[in-house]
Amino acid sequence: MVDLTRNGRLLFGGDYNPEQWPEEIWLEDIRLMKQAKVTTATLGIFSWSSLEPREGVYAFEWLDRAIDLLWANDISVVLATPTASPPPWFTKAHPEAMPVTRAGVRLVHGSRDTYNPAALAYREAARRITRAIGDRYGHHPALQGWHVHNEYGSVSYGPAVDEAFRRWLRERYIDLAALNRAWYTAFWSQGYGDWDEILAPQQTQYLSNPAHELDFKRFSAELLLDCYREQIAILRETSPDVPLTTNFILSTWLNYNHWELAAASDFVSIDFYLDADGVEGAAHAAFGADQARSFAQGRPWLLMEQAANATVKPGRIVAKPRGEILRTTAQHIAYGSQGALFFQWRAGLGGSEAFHSTMVPHVGEDSRVFREVVELGAFIDQLGDLSLEPAGRVNGRRVAIVWDIDSWWATESSSLPSDRFNFQAAVRRVHRALWFLGIGVDFVRPQDDLSGYSLLLIPSQLVATPEQATNVRRFVADGGEAVVWYFSGTFDANLQIIPGGYSGMFAETLGIRVEELLPLADGESVQLDNGAIGTVWSESVQLRGAEPWAHYTTGFARGGPAVTHNAVGSGHAYYVSTELDDAALTALLVMVLAEAGVEPDARGAGGGLEAVRRRAGDHSYLFLINHGNEDRWSTAFGTDLLTGSTYEGSVLVVAGAILVIRESINN
Amino acid sequence: MVDLTRNGRLLFGGDYNPEQWPEEIWLEDIRLMKQAKVTTATLGIFSWSSLEPREGVYAFEWLDRAIDLLWANDISVVLATPTASPPPWFTKAHPEAMPVTRAGVRLVHGSRDTYNPAALAYREAARRITRAIGDRYGHHPALQGWHVHNEYGSVSYGPAVDEAFRRWLRERYIDLAALNRAWYTAFWSQGYGDWDEILAPQQTQYLSNPAHELDFKRFSAELLLDCYREQIAILRETSPDVPLTTNFILSTWLNYNHWELAAASDFVSIDFYLDADGVEGAAHAAFGADQARSFAQGRPWLLMEQAANATVKPGRIVAKPRGEILRTTAQHIAYGSQGALFFQWRAGLGGSEAFHSTMVPHVGEDSRVFREVVELGAFIDQLGDLSLEPAGRVNGRRVAIVWDIDSWWATESSSLPSDRFNFQAAVRRVHRALWFLGIGVDFVRPQDDLSGYSLLLIPSQLVATPEQATNVRRFVADGGEAVVWYFSGTFDANLQIIPGGYSGMFAETLGIRVEELLPLADGESVQLDNGAIGTVWSESVQLRGAEPWAHYTTGFARGGPAVTHNAVGSGHAYYVSTELDDAALTALLVMVLAEAGVEPDARGAGGGLEAVRRRAGDHSYLFLINHGNEDRWSTAFGTDLLTGSTYEGSVLVVAGAILVIRESINN
Amino acid sequence: MVDLTRNGRLLFGGDYNPEQWPEEIWLEDIRLMKQAKVTTATLGIFSWSSLEPREGVYAFEWLDRAIDLLWANDISVVLATPTASPPPWFTKAHPEAMPVTRAGVRLVHGSRDTYNPAALAYREAARRITRAIGDRYGHHPALQGWHVHNEYGSVSYGPAVDEAFRRWLRERYIDLAALNRAWYTAFWSQGYGDWDEILAPQQTQYLSNPAHELDFKRFSAELLLDCYREQIAILRETSPDVPLTTNFILSTWLNYNHWELAAASDFVSIDFYLDADGVEGAAHAAFGADQARSFAQGRPWLLMEQAANATVKPGRIVAKPRGEILRTTAQHIAYGSQGALFFQWRAGLGGSEAFHSTMVPHVGEDSRVFREVVELGAFIDQLGDLSLEPAGRVNGRRVAIVWDIDSWWATESSSLPSDRFNFQAAVRRVHRALWFLGIGVDFVRPQDDLSGYSLLLIPSQLVATPEQATNVRRFVADGGEAVVWYFSGTFDANLQIIPGGYSGMFAETLGIRVEELLPLADGESVQLDNGAIGTVWSESVQLRGAEPWAHYTTGFARGGPAVTHNAVGSGHAYYVSTELDDAALTALLVMVLAEAGVEPDARGAGGGLEAVRRRAGDHSYLFLINHGNEDRWSTAFGTDLLTGSTYEGSVLVVAGAILVIRESINN
Q1: Of A105, A181, A188, which to mutate for an interface test with B (greatest number of B Cβ within 10 Å)?
Q2: ipTM for the complex?
Q3: Which segments of chain A have a pLDDT < 50?
Q4: Using CB atoms, which residue from B184, B193, B513 is nearest to C348?
Q5: Whole-prediction pTM value?
Q6: What pLDDT shows up at residue C392?
Q7: Interface chains of chain A (3 or more CB pairs under 8 Å)
Q8: Considering CB atoms only, which of B212, B419, B515 is closest to C363?
């Protein structure tokens, strides 16, 4: 297990770009960093053109000086490989290595991420700059970690991709006939007679082939994994003991395989930008933190990028309410992050992201934002005890939500029965409802070991394998409670429909047969006999062993079951064939949580009062964060790390407050 | 006159794709087809890659077995040429024969319809596979008809098209000066000095030339006709007696010339997908059926594709209400279809249209949908008498609506005075209003013989020739009633404006002069002094012999005539210069129907009770279909083919019911 | 100073395209022109293919005859060079000279403006046809002026542009390091190591570089200026005394530099199409006229194109209310135009703009539109006195609005803090509010001599230089009143943010420090303590010498200043940090107008009663135009040129009326 922290300090700091500034500003930066108790600077993420200004000609001196200066001031360095943004000379020298759009447009530099991950010239250039940086800094004492690339996710088309895609397909299918079956090419005369006839799914006349598209997404994700692995191999040589990561951009990017990239990393790191503020923003932050922790699968994780002062809203920058950055950061640490970094330290004066918020804003240190950053640095400094546990372990969760990248990819098909449906949105909705109930969850793959969980939630996992279905059945039979949402298990791994009834892969466990899919229009809804209202989807469901829990009273499926439950072994499996309104979804979850015997980590948690218990060594630390506008009561036994107050029972968490209690009774 | 039916049976069945299934499923299919009384399977529509897996290498054995199996079970075959979807090998071998978009993007396979109809390699490959299929199956006893291609409509750009377009223009204009005049190239410096300077209307800087665009649409439609004719010539050689068709996709596709393709066919076939359900869906079905029957011009026609269980709505599949498929199918047969086929028989498990509805759904035979299909098969089986009349003749209609492909094409110009205007929508609105009044109509070209009609309706036929105008005038002078809607006859065949007043080609007949076009904004309306409300359009109209029938009381044209009528010879011509609201449109039609002496085919028809009288041999058969939710009364004399009940006067048609009465009094 | 007018006549007429018509129609045109008292026809604007039907082969005879015929009938000619629309032969001969889109699509002829202004072949062809026309007609007595090109504004990409762009950048920056600094290329690894690595900002992966984009806009505008200058040089040789212009298309086109093109011209000409009718249309016309007059900077200007009968509204043509063309034209002349021309004389029967309104409509002379044209001709004929003053001088304005093309270009950046923000819209809003108060304004560049003004308005001028800031400060210190709107002076000339507080370039003069930008969402608003409502934008503003004038009472900036004022020397500078509602904006302007001592040109002006005083020789002419629906009172002393009535005090201007009073007391 790698340990990211140093000298009992969680990481605090951000992306730092000294190459944008004259060196007198560097000294100013050091002064402000010390004022804010910054521990860590991330360097080099977009420095390729500064480090290798011409092909094969390096200019490391500025970086030497910057790292030495930071280290002399007790600030560690996470060093990036700059391969996400090749310099202009690369375009000129290797035009064939530029990315090509689905419509065949060859892009050029002028932004960032202009490279084709399948192009040999790109791969070679990336390896070369990685080795040069690894050789030069791999043993620098300031080096706290490697930060490979930035936000993997580029997808390209064109000849180099076609070639690589065919190679990947040959390995996957061996036999062309197997590919033809998997892709269902007998439809629309798409049968391939030769591997060389296969292309990436470029622009075509009409609807594309869903299995072709899904395999291309798998291939593209693996291509990025290959890129990552090449850099890992080099950095393992140059600096075997330095932990490495690549930063995921959550929660809307899907062009990579989170589980696989995480498995190749020493620690997981995420970039996370809130899509709301207040309590909804906190729910969003919890979602990202739970994803990061789950992808890490027991290894450490780190919040690599967040915004000091902006939520992401369409068409404008939006300031975060005062004090919110403290609560959001505390949240991430409660969920196990080994610290909190920002993009970026100092606001740039130009470039495409000049208005991206920063720790030191354009206006300088005399600013609300920088004062909050200083306050945050002091806060994190007080949490040193937590650094004893490198993995950022939290209390074991008894509820798991299935998160399956194939199902998310499949959502993008243009051939689904409704375009109002999105896997990630379905997952977020269930996670949010649980968060408001104060219940912590893990995300799992459906084939994972589920034995530690009491309740398993499967929100519209479109794609499922027989092995996954067997695993779920075993979980239920062994006494687990499961809830499966509509359309789950409708497709096999090649996006072929399981015949005999939709949701077919799970049908036996659920004791149902789904005869007809009846998706609803925007604004359309159906009533259930338990008072619930369903939107987005409905189905004609028949009972094959299950019992009805609620029926449709309106709509095409009127009179038929809407929600069912089925006893399997010593557990139960629920099926939900429509999108329940908030109250009905919550009521269902309250019921199954009770059946599973799951309760919040602390009394009074939920509805915006977040209670998370993080562990370090032999101790537990209860975070109580009140994201709401009203004071709330909870219960705690122990001493607040921040104030030194001790609690032996009821504790008032005032609106907006954060308590971090080292518990006297270990929970 | 060809006869599609066999042994007194109307056609019932659908597209069948045995190449997608193992042969044990074929036997299952046969069992279910017999259960549903299927008479006909359509094969081969997308089978090119299965029949010619490599260029020039054929694999007919599976098709031999499939056809033999069907025929052994008394199921006939309509065999398609698979030329709408070339296999992947074709792209690889002939990249220059791929379609090119207006913006110059060369498309590739991965969907269907990836070919350039002007490319020699495509044409040659299409002829070759057609001849191979014709040679092999042209004399098979199961062969009931040829189904050439699928849904002609592809448009391409690029060098091969430019070349063919120039050839077509040379033939049309002979003299380049004539083309320059026709295209009004003196505007914007577009004068051509050499034929070779002419290109298809690709992406350009700003507004394109409307006459150039219109000629390109004409050319593109003729190019498809040429493709069709090449296949016809081959199939006539291989199997002179087998009737052939190509299936039109109604009612939104416009990249072909319906009248011309129909004239080249032995029978007309249509693919028709409802855009609504209930009574509005029935009105839509009637529109398609009237179009098909009219395009056929006395030859047989056939509903080649419909959906067993879905209306076309944006972004999702939508189930048809129970029983509706029976009514919709009955409707098509009432209007003359020689049967009813579906796309497709068995639901595929993969591919882009896996959720396209089918006769045998994913869930299998134990399903509402398949039970309705069996019910429908029994229904059609009872209508064998109707097969005596190959042409599917219906009672002579006395009302004609002008349907002019040039005017529809012209609607797509970006240079019209309003973008809220669409020819096809204007036609549908008039057809729908008449259908709700229980009045059957024919569609005609304005140059057709109109002598059989009493009432002629011209809904915004933008483009008109002097011959057409003369024909309309003669019709009116000879005692006909005509109604002409705004903007009709404003352009000549080259989209040049007739000077001296808009709607100029018909102005003399109408007795008006239209000085100004005053199209209305979304949400804008004008009042008329007869209580009507006008939207979309208004005009400043002056009387030149006509009398006003209604005036504008608001808007720019306030005080001027909105609707006029003019006596010409022994007939009358109305002009409607705005889009009347439903009630006002209906009132106008009621009046002119009365003047023309036109009445429904049966008492009580209209408002969702459909009454259509189809003929077979010496008999008439009255279809009474109640699409509404309330029971309705009508009158009939004869015996119901379905129940054997006899009627001698009043007859109650309960909500949702279908009566097919062989009449004792021939009407 | 050139004089456009002849024989005491203001110009009246329009674009005339004899090449579209048989010569018998020319005679008809002459008859109608004389009836309408037309003085001027503009020829040749889109005649390239008619004048040079094949490369290097000319056909001038038709134009000789047309010009001679006009001149024989006392109609002068403004002759265009037809370079805005190369003929089809040009595409074929020089495919490399076609424009290329940002995505790399090479456009072709079929519309107009299909040329790449950086292509040598285009430049050469343009020079050749210009010289040929100049040689042939430069000394024709009918020639009243040269009209070079049409509506400059084409932007292209591709190799020829890349090359020219690099040349331009080398001249601008000399040193590549300077360019790297100016473009802030250290961000996102965009550092250039060689000039040849630089491309025009084509399609790239993600956000483009704002400074790169801004320089490309500057370059593209200068490229057009180069094209213009080449033609000017030729025409100065062929006809040294003939005044020349190029017509601007106002008010939405921004691909050229209005100030620079104007400076190269002998007189300014504009194409102006109203976006509204009634009083709002009049406000729009005033905006265009003030822009044209200001761009001309003391030289004459001319309304080159307007529509006889249409305002520009989305998706349809819209008739102008009766009488409005007279008022709008009078307005332009009041503001200094040397006449009023139209696009175009006679309605074409085909082409892309067949429904563009004209002086002679499709319906011919017996029409409302032509009758209004005749009335207008008579009106203009009565204003001959005004032709004595070639420059069309109006009374000196004491209010100036800053209009800065860099700031407009900068608005198009995708990297601003809000996409609801547009410089031109901000300017129009301020101009409109002043117009409704009856106050005339000049537009100025912020570096211009401001000494003649009492009040300076700076509506969100994003980009500012230190010189401009100093000029503004000096203006205020010298006793001027200034109002600066939010975000002004936030960027330097390279779109780099001035650190230390937004609006930084003007911060010292304003006495403020803007700490945070808080743009608002659609539908979001904030309250101010003076009752105002703010939308679009808000800010956290701190006082650094200024005093608050209004505070925010809601929103993130609650409690902070919203509007401030600062005393500097003997003047004052206001800062407005949000978009005030109409009433609050008006109230603010009323206050600063009072402080500046500025009043309307006539009593009662404003709210739709327009009062403008134009000068000619020693006289002043007061235009009183009532655009509203209610009669209004004003004051005048003198004789109406139209009616001969004399006024010695109060004068009633009835709704819709126009008075042009030669004043007895010179104002």
Answers
A1: A188
A2: 0.97
A3: none
A4: B184
A5: 0.97
A6: 83
A7: B, C
A8: B515
